[in-house]
Give the backbone structure.
Amino acid sequence: MKGLQGKNALVTGATSGIGQAIAIKLAQCGCNIAINYRRTPESATDTEEMAMEKACKDIENCGMRSLLVKGDVSQETDIVKMVNSVVDNFGSLDILINNAGIQTECPSHELTTADFDQVIAVNLRGAFLCARETIKHFLSQSHSGVIINISSVHEIIPRPKYLSYSISKGGMENLTKTLALEYAHRGIRVNAVAPGATVTPINQAWIDDPEKKATVESHIPICRAGTTEEIAAAVAFLASDEAAYITGQTLFVDGGLSLYADFRENWSA
Ligand code: NAD
């Protein structure tokens, strides 16, 4: 994809699911990839191996470099260290993908302060801090850059019993727009990709249960859950120069989930 060859990208939470697919896709497009993991480097080696393998299918990308970077995105000191480590190792950073995310299910009136704070700390404050450190780097080198936030359809659709998750993704919309407006004139583009129901470990509760899976898919206009590759393709597009004139937007990659599926048939008249 135009403009990705040789770029340096950092993907948070890249050891599984959507983050892993994004790291692999960007490597395939010729990017050097920094793979963020939270606890042990072993958890990131699968992503690294798959990214290398895909990249090397195209001989031009065979020189692609990878880096495993430890960091808990709820910890400010970890984030500062992580971004510095990517810049030191790669020489610069061009693309940040804020993907790391968690969710907890709990009736809102029983949600503890600690659980509320933890989801916000990872999903929203973590994305802000990673963006802040990355933008400092973009500005210090006076070079253009791209930030993509992995949001959710719950950026706009309320999700009962997942209050902190819905708030974190709703906040991400404004994080995306505000940073986009503030730094557009410095050549920095900030966008979001909002997946719908996607087959990843975060959805283990219904993926392996055919009945639950059928129920989930019955609410999706395209009649199936999305794949991580479909999310990664949208991310690669927004990171590339094909999207050079797009900033401050959320691209919904959700099989139509955000189109109010219950209105497919007229039930109100
Ligand atoms: P996942 O559980 O496979 O991936 C989440 C990743 O985040 C994991 O690699 C995990 O290790 C990492 N992570 C969690 N806490 C972290 C922390 N404190 N520091 C660093 N890394 C941390 O789930 P996924 O579905 O691939 O989710 C990826 C993103 O996509 C999340 O932001 C999620 O909200 C979003 N999303 C997913 C879906 C879906 O249906 N799967 C839908 C909408 C949005």
In short: The CA atoms of residues 6 and 257 lie 35 Å apart. The beta strands are 8-11, 32-37, 66-70, 95-98, 145-150, 188-195, 250-253.
